[in-house]
Amino acid sequence: MKDTFKALQVTDDVYWVGAVDWSVRNFHGYLTSRGTTYNAYLVLADKITLIDTVKAPFKDELLARIASVVEPSKIDYIISNHSEPDHSGCLSEAIDATGAEKVFASKMGCKALAEHFQLKGITAVADGEELSLGNRTITFAETRMCHWPDSMVSYLHEEQLLFSQDAFGMHLASYERFADELDRSLLDEEAAKYYANILLPLSNFVTKALAKIAAMNIPLRIIAPDHGPIWRKDPTRIVEAYARWADQQRTARAIVVYDTMWGSTERMARAIGEGLAAGGASVRLMSASSVHRSDVATEILDAGALIVGSPTINNQIFPSVADVLCYLKGLQPKGLIGAAFGSYGWSGEATKQLKAALAEMNVELLDEPIKATYSPTDQDLQRCYQLGVKVAGTLKERFPQPAETTA
Ligand code: FEO
Description:
Layout: E1 8-9, E2 14-16, E3 19-21, E4 26-27, E5 30-31, E6 36-38, E7 41-43, E8 49-51, H1 59-67, E9 77-80, H2 85-88, H3 91-98, E10 102-106, H4 107-117, E11 123-125, E12 130-132, E13 137-142, E14 152-156, E15 161-165, H5 184-199, H6 203-215, E16 222-225, H7 236-246, E17 253-258, H8 264-278, E18 282-287, H9 293-300, E19 305-309, E20 312-313, E21 316-317, H10 319-331, E22 337-344, H11 350-360, E23 364-365, E24 370-373, H12 378-398
Parallel strand pairs: 8-9, 9-10, 10-11, 15-16, 17-18, 17-19, 19-22, 22-23, 22-24
Antiparallel strand pairs: 1-2, 2-7, 3-6, 4-5, 7-8, 12-13, 13-14, 14-15, 20-21
Bound molecules: MU-OXO-diiron.
């Protein structure tokens, strides 16, 4: 395979030796609609070092790319920055194939690798510890909960290169390995989607990690994450986007999430959308049965309002709407305003349940839920429209400045 799967040179001494997964579409509930990459890196120092591995089915691709540069048996060290199986799933096989003298992970990484993969004998490195590779030096920094308790980053001083594991990554399969080779709007979209779906509930930890990296006072010439392209031109741009996203800065934009049984709740959603737009808000209507929950999550990253509508089915919220709400609740968005609405034929419990669900998410409800029986009347639709106008007015008061939304 080494004549087919080649390493790609990142700097004089650093090579990308990861794998491209064009077909994966599910990353624990997140729709990875453009696939992903599992990035691993080879540092050709006196002590040849492999940084992270790949998801288990891609082990041969990893080893082939390594072999295109150096015989795998020449690898001295392996560093595991993150124990999740997309990066450590073939670590055991990589240790066997390389005969690496030492494998390094954070203290929590050693625990996770032992419990997840029954891997013993990993050397724990401390936060801030330096590792000499002979003619090169790496400093480790723990970045707990960015994404798992074990997460750490590794900084290669001589190249001013940060191996950032999950942080600053995106799920995007491509043969372009550098961000500057890809369309900016594509990068913005996928980086935001990744943050919203993976890191949003961990934003406090992201803020701490960013402060820690800033306190290291290190030049950042290149950021090499474990997913998606490498940032080699203006890497601070993605760092600044993370600071903004972690701060959960909101805008005068409203998301209306709904589903419908016979079209009534959808008509209400459309009337609310008209009111929001007339009131000057930016609006996105998202039918829960025609969009994926992870796309709603992306929209919530910088929206200021979440308005949710559902018909009542068997005394409950419509399942597609419940799915989205359950997912969004887990992502813990902060600082949203919102409202609930829905049509019903018999008992109409859904709007009450929506109100309770939004309250549990600490969404500030601007009004009581709007309910319509069977088919909404003109009066019902006018109430929906007015709700939209009211939400838009509040959004414009609270978020008068358009926020930067790009990476
Ligand atoms: Fe890419 Fe948290 O694993």
